[in-house]
C-alpha cells in the first residue's frame, strides 16, 4: 500500500483534459460548440432529431442551432426513430453527414434494425463502395426518478457489432473533441452522453480539435489499483480515488473515452503494474463493457509470467432501474461503494472499510435539485 | 423523357432488351444453381420483370434506385453491370460487392443502384434519406424505392411515407405486390386490401396497376418524376405482379399447395417479355436475343474465371478508411 503522501503526488504520465488552455466550459456547451464549429466548416453536416429545435434544445446542446443554420440543416423529426435512422443513413450514403440526436439512449432500441442491420454493415456488405458517416448522439439519464426506461446505458449492445464505433466522453474537453472526431469519421459512431455530466465544467479550447478514438486517458495516476471508469463512472471513480487517498490507497483512474476502438494497451500496462483492476461501468455487468475489458485482460495475461492480477467489476444492480430514490440509490455504484470495493481488493484481510456517506457525495449530485 | 412522347421503335427495343436480359439472366442463374457454383441464396424475379423495367426506363442514369433481396431485376434494369452481378453470385472478388454481399446485397453506386437488404422494408427509409439529399442538391434527381407487399406491413414503411410526404421529397415508392410474403398470402396478413387508400391518407398520390403493363408503369413514373424534378413530392405505385418460381431458389413450387399453378398460367398469358418482344420487328429481336445470350455467357465466363477473394479480404472494410 502507498503512503498518503505518495498517493497525492500525480505521476508525470497523468494527463489532464484541457490543460493546454481554453476556458472553463460546461459539457453541454462543449457539445454545442463542437456541432456549431463543424457545421460552419462543413455544409454537409446537419442535425436531426426529436426536439432538437424546441425551446429547450436537448438540454441546451442544440439550442440556437436552427436560428444560425436554418431549418434545412437543423430540424425536428416525427417520432419515427426507425425510419429517421434510415433517413439519416440514406443521407449519409448520399454524401451528407448527419447527426441524429436522441434525448434518451433507451430510444435507440427503436433504431436497432437500422443501426445493426444497415449502418454497421453497409461498408463491408457492399464491398467498400459506400460509407456511412453517421453520428448517433444519445443521452443516458440518471437521478430524480428517471426510472426503468430513461436510465439505461445500452452501449455494449453496439460494442458487440463490428462496424460501429462507440464513444463515451466523461468531460467537456473530451466531449468537444470526440464529437468533432465523430462528425469527421466516415463510420457510424454511437456517441454516448450522460445527463449528469452536462453541467460539469472542464477547460476547453475554443479552436476546433479532435480527441482520438482508441486512446485512453489516465485521469489520475496511482500504483495500488487500476480503476477503469466508463462515462460518468470516471467521475465517480475520481471521487473514490480521493476518498481512498485519505486512507493511503493510490488508485490509478483510466478513462477509455472510446469503447470501440478500445485502448487495451493503456489498461494492460496499468493492470500489470498495479496487479489489481476494478472496472466500474455505467451499465449492467452481464455481457457489458466491463465483461469485455476483463476478458481481454485475462486473454492477454493468463499463462504469462507476470504477477497475477486481481479483477473485479461493478455496474448497475442486476435489476430494472427502480424509480424511488430509496432503491435507486442502491442501484448505482457510487464513490463509497467503489472505494469500499477497492479497499477490500487492496487489503483482502483487513476489516471491511467504507468512507463516511456524507464524504462520498458528489458535487454534481448535490447540485442537482429536480424536479426534472 | 416526357411522358407524353410516343414511344419510338428504339424505345420499345430498349425496353424489350431490358426485360429479356433480366428474364434470360435469371433463367441461366436457375440453370446453374444446382451445380453449387453460385454461392448465395437467389430470389428470382422471373415473371416480375416489368415493374423494375417500367420504372427504371422512366429514370435517368443520375436518378437513384433502391431494391430488395429479390433485386436482380432492379439492378439490371438500372444498368448494373451483369459481369459484376454474376461474379457476386459466385462469391468472387470481382463481384459488385467483392463477394461480400451476394445475391441479396447487390449494389452499384456508379449506376446509382443503392445496396439491397435482406431485412424486409429496411431500405425504404434509406431511399427517402437519399432523396432528401437529392432535394438539397437541387439538380432535380429523384429516388425510386422498390419493395414487396410484405414490406407494407412494416412500421417503417408508414414512418417513411409520412416523412417523405411531410417534406415533399422526390421519391417514387414502388410496391411489387406479388401477393405472397414468402408463402403467406395477403388474405392472412392484411385487414384490408386498400393499400393505396392507406398510402393516400398520407397525402401521397397513388396508382394501382393490376396488369403489370410495362408501358403503363413507365408512363406513370415518367409523369410523376417530371413533377418531382420541379419540386413535387412523392408518389406511390402498387404494381400487381406474379413470382413464377419459388420464394428462394431456382425451382417452381406449385406442388407445395399454397398457390395454384393456374394463377401463374393466367399471368403468363400477359407476360410482358413476350408481349413487348412481339412489338419488336423479327430481325431486331433476333439480334437483341443473340446479343443478350453472348452477354450472359460472357458474364458467366467472367464469374467462373474470376478469383475468390484472398483471406486478407475478411478483415477489409469493417471500417471505412482502414483499407
Which features characterize this protein?
heterodimer; A: 372 residues; alpha/beta; Rossmann fold; 2 domains; five-stranded mixed sheet; 14 strands; 17% strand; B: 323 residues; six-stranded parallel sheet; two-stranded antiparallel ribbon; 11 helices; 8 strands; globular
Molecular structure report:
The complex is a heterodimer of chains A (about 375) and B (about 325). By secondary structure, chain A is an alpha/beta fold. Chain A folds into 2 domains: about 5-20 and about 215-365, Rossmann fold (3-Layer(aba) Sandwich); about 25-205, 3-Layer(aba) Sandwich (Rossmann fold). In chain A, about 35% of the residues lie in helices and about 15% in strands. In chain A, strand 10, helix 9 and strand 11 form a beta-alpha-beta unit. Chain A starts with a helix and ends in a 5-residue tail after the last helix. Residues about 1-15 of chain A have low confidence and may be disordered. Chain B has a single domain (about 10-310), classed as Rossmann fold (3-Layer(aba) Sandwich). In chain B, about 40% of the residues lie in helices and about 10% in strands. In chain B, the strands form 2 sheets. Chain B has a 6-stranded parallel β-sheet, with helices on both faces. In chain B, helix 2 (about 50-55) runs parallel beside helix 8 (about 215-230). The radius of gyration of chain B is 19 Å and the shape is globular. In chain B, about 50% of the residues are buried. The interface of A and B includes residues 83 and 165 of A.
Amino acid at each position: 500500500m502507498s503512503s498518503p503522501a505518495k498517493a497525492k503526488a500525480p505521476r508525470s504520465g497523468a494527463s489532464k483534459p484541457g490543460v493546454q488552455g481554453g476556458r472553463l466550459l460546461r459539457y453541454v456547451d462543449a457539445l454545442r460548440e463542437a456541432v456549431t464549429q463543424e457545421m460552419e466548416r462543413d455544409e454537409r453536416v446537419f442535425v436531426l432529431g426529436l426536439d432538437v429545435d424546441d425551446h429547450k434544445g436537448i438540454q441546451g446542446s442544440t439550442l440556437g442551432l436552427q436560428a444560425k443554420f436554418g431549418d434545412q440543416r437543423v430540424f425536428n423529426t416525427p417520432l419515427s426513430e426507425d425510419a429517421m435512422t434510415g433517413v439519416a443513413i440514406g443521407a449519409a450514403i448520399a454524401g451528407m453527414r448527419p447527426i441524429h440526436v436522441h434525448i434518451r439512449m433507451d430510444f435507440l432500441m427503436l433504431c436497432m434494425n437500422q443501426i445493426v442491420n444497415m449502418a454497421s454493415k453497409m461498408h463491408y456488405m457492399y464491398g467498400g463502395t459506400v460509407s456511412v458517416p453517421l453520428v448517433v448522439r444519445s443521452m443516458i439519464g440518471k437521478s430524480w426518478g428517471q426510472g426503468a426506461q430513461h436510465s439505461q446505458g445500452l452501449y455494449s449492445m453496439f460494442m458487440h457489432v463490428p462496424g460501429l464505433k462507440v464513444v463515451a466522453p466523461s468531460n467537456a474537453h473530451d466531449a468537444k473533441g470526440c464529437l468533432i472526431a465523430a462528425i469527421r469519421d466516415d463510420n457510424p459512431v454511437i456517441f454516448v452522453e450522460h445527463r449528469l455530466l452536462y453541467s460539469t465544467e472542464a477547460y476547453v479550447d475554443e479552436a476546433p480539435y479532435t480527441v482520438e478514438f482508441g486512446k485512453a486517458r489516465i485521469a489520475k495516476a496511482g500504483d495500488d489499483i487500476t480503476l477503469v471508469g466508463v462515462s460518468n463512472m470516471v467521475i465517480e471513480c475520481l471521487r473514490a480515488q480521493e476518498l481512498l487517498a485519505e486512507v493511503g490507497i493510490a488508485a490509478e483512474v483510466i478513462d477509455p473515452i472510446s469503447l470501440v476502438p478500445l485502448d487495451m494497451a493503456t489498461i494492460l500496462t496499468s493492470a500489470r503494474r498495479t496487479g489489481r483492476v476494478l472496472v466500474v461501468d455505467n451499465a449492467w455487468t452481464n455481457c457489458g463493457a466491463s465483461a469485455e475489458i476483463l476478458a481481454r485482460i485475462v486473454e492477454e495475461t493468463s499463462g504469462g509470467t507476470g504477477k497475477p492480477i486481481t479483477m473485479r467489476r461493478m455496474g448497475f444492480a442486476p435489476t430494472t432501474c427502480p424509480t424511488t430514490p430509496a432503491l435507486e440509490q442502491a442501484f448505482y455504484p457510487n464513490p463509497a461503494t467503489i472505494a469500499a470495493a477497492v479497499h477490500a481488493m487492496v487489503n483482502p484481510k483487513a476489516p471491511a472499510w467504507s468512507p463516511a456517506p456524507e464524504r462520498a457525495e458528489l458535487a454534481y449530485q448535490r447540485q442537482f435539485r429536480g424536479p426534472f | 423523357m416526357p411522358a407524353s412522347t410516343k414511344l419510338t421503335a428504339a424505345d420499345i427495343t430498349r425496353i424489350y432488351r431490358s426485360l429479356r436480359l433480366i428474364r434470360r439472366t435469371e433463367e441461366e442463374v436457375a440453370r446453374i444453381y444446382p451445380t453449387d457454383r453460385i454461392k448465395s441464396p437467389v430470389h428470382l424475379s422471373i415473371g416480375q420483370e416489368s415493374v423494375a423495367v417500367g420504372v427504371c426506363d422512366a429514370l435517368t442514369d443520375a436518378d437513384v434506385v433502391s431494391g430488395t433481396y429479390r433485386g436482380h431485376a432492379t439492378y439490371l434494369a438500372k444498368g448494373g453491370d451483369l459481369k459484376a452481378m454474376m461474379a457476386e453470385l459466385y462469391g468472387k472478388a470481382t463481384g459488385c460487392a467483392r463477394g461480400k454481399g451476394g445475391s441479396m446485397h447487390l449494389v452499384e453506386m456508379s449506376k446509382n443502384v443503392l445496396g439491397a437488404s435482406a431485412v424486409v422494408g429496411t431500405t425504404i427509409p434509406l431511399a427517402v434519406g437519399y432523396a432528401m439529399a437529392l432535394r438539397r442538391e437541387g439538380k432535380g434527381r429523384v429516388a425510386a424505392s422498390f419493395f414487396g407487399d410484405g414490406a407494407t406491413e412494416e412500421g417503417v414503411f408508414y414512418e417513411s411515407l409520412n416523412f417523405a410526404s411531410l417534406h415533399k421529397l422526390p421519391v417514387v415508392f414502388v410496391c411489387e405486390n406479388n401477393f405472397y410474403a414468402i408463402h403467406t398470402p395477403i388474405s392472412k396478413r392484411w385487414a384490408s386490401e386498400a393499400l393505396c387508400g392507406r398510402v393516400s391518407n398520407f397525402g401521397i398520390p397513388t396508382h394501382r396497376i393490376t396488369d403489370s403493363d410495362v408501358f403503363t408503369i413507365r408512363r406513370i413514373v415518367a409523369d410523376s418524376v417530371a413533377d418531382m424534378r420541379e419540386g413535387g413530392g412523392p408518389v406511390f405505385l402498387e404494381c400487381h405482379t406474379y413470382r413464377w418460381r419459388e420464394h428462394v431458389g431456382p425451382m417452381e413450387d406449385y406442388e407445395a399447395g399454397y398457390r395454384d399453378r393456374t394463377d401463374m398460367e393466367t399471368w403468363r398469358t400477359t407476360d410482358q417479355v413476350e408481349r413487348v418482344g412481339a412489338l419488336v420487328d423479327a430481325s431486331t429481336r433476333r439480334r437483341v436475343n443473340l446479343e443478350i445470350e453472348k452477354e450472359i455467357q460472357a458474364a458467366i465466363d467472367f464469374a467462373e474465371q474470376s478469383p475468390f477473394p484472398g483471406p486478407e479480404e475478411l478483415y477489409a472494410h469493417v471500417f471505412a478508411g482502414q483499407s
